[in-house]
Design a protein that fits this description.
11 helices, alpha/beta, about 15% strand, 5-stranded mixed sheet, 8 strands
């Protein structure tokens, strides 16, 4: 779609004198510097090197989108794509409000309030939240080394956000709410990962913790006997420190699980502001919280860069 206002400006450029051209150039530069989202998208266009559908490096330019983003067409699979295809930002609109949304999400503002402040629908606010949560959830560490702390966290089972509940409705005070177990693991040096389990069993715990362990590492856990049984069956050599409260919370002044316990406490406190999170989305909220731990408030623009796959 042609921008008639832009065409009019371009037609007037040849008639401008040098002083007016400098003023125009200054205004354009100010606009480019203030448009953080536009700048990130433009930088992403320079890094496009393959088709996101088939990973072929044979592609050609194929027009632009309605927002002026360059489109491409793959010579192999014949599909079209742009720099945002298969990223959390793909087909998201109203990009001028993304940074403000990220800032309010950082503060844990309720969806209804976000929708009112940004003048967007509640449905859009919900859709954006889970697009924002999508990026950190894809960047989980796959293995740890050195000293590793691990402990379980438990949250009430919730079907918030679901249209159908696969159980009979429960009256207030009508029995205990099932708890969802989540294994939180921490490698000394501020690397966290997690695994949401459907039930608190030794098999599930083993499936969650075993892939993280490497030869020569030291695993610190609480007194849960399941960890002891899991470690004994491993084919790798590692040290296992069981932290039993009655024997003291620290072994040899270095082995403990205080980092991971402190993290769980802070995460649950932060999670309370959302007034309940659906079990299906717990991992995404946990990933977002971990992502925030590595950033400083006011660096929401880094999410935009990482969401497009750019290094920061």
């Amino acid at each position: 779609m042609r921008n008639m206002a832009l065409d009019s400006i371009l037609q007037l450029i040849p008639s401008l004198n040098y002083a007016d051209t400098k003023r125009l150039n200054h205004s354009v530069r100010q606009k480019l510097d203030s448009d953080i989202v536009g700048k990130v998208i433009a930088e992403r266009e320079d890094e496009v090197s393959e088709c996101p559908h088939c990973h072929s490096v044979e592609f050609v330019k194929h027009g632009v989108t309605g927002k002026g983003i360059q489109r491409y067409r793959c010579k192999c699979c014949k599909k079209t794509f742009c720099s945002l295809t298969k990223t959390p930002l793909y087909r998201m609109r109203k990009e001028s409000k993304w940074l403000a949304y990220a800032s309010m999400m950082w503060e844990g503002v309720a969806l209804r309030k976000i929708a009112k402040v940004l003048n967007i629908s509640l449905r859009t606010a919900f859709f954006w939240r889970h697009r924002f949560l999508q990026m950190p959830d894809k960047n989980k560490p796959t293995s740890f080394t050195g000293i590793i702390e691990a402990d379980e966290a438990f949250l009430p089972e919730s079907y918030k956000g679901k249209r159908q509940v696969p159980r009979k409705s429960r009256k207030r005070g009508g029995g205990k709410v099932p708890l969802v177990p989540i294994l939180i693991s921490y490698q000394r040096g501020d690397r966290y990962t997690y695994e949401v389990m459907d039930r608190n069993t030794k098999e599930n715990l083993s499936n969650a913790i075993t892939p993280l362990l490497t030869d020569g590492c030291c695993l610190c856990t609480d007194g849960n006997l399941s960890y002891k049984s899991i470690v004994e069956k491993l084919d790798i050599k590692l040290d296992h420190k069981r932290i039993i409260a009655s024997d003291g919370r620290v072994i040899d002044e270095i082995y403990h699980i205080q980092h991971v316990n402190g993290f769980i406490s802070l995460w649950k406190e932060w999670l309370d502001r959302f007034r309940g999170v659906g079990t299906a989305y717990v991992s995404r909220y946990l990933a977002w919280f971990i992502w925030m731990q590595d950033k400083s408030y006011g660096e929401e623009n880094l999410w935009i860069k990482e969401a497009t796959g750019q290094a920061v």
